[in-house]
Design brief:
By secondary structure, this protein is an all-alpha fold. Helices cover 74% and strands 0% of the residues.
């Protein structure tokens, strides 16, 4: 196992673990955004109901 140093990171070498983590992070972000987008009508209706516009 190779030690990760600043030189290794700056040289642009990518390891398989880093690529896997980046891919999982992207997938999690996409799911989170889809969930937030699905809740927007509920959030909007609740907000307008609370301020008396509905």
């Amino acid at each position: 196992m190779e030690a990760v140093t600043m030189e290794t990171v700056e040289s642009g070498e990518s390891c398989t673990t880093c690529a896997k983590v980046a891919q999982e992070s992207k997938a999690n972000e996409e799911v989170s955004m889809a969930f937030l987008l699905a809740l927007m009508p509920v959030i909007t209706l609740t907000f307008f109901g609370q301020i008396g516009l509905l």
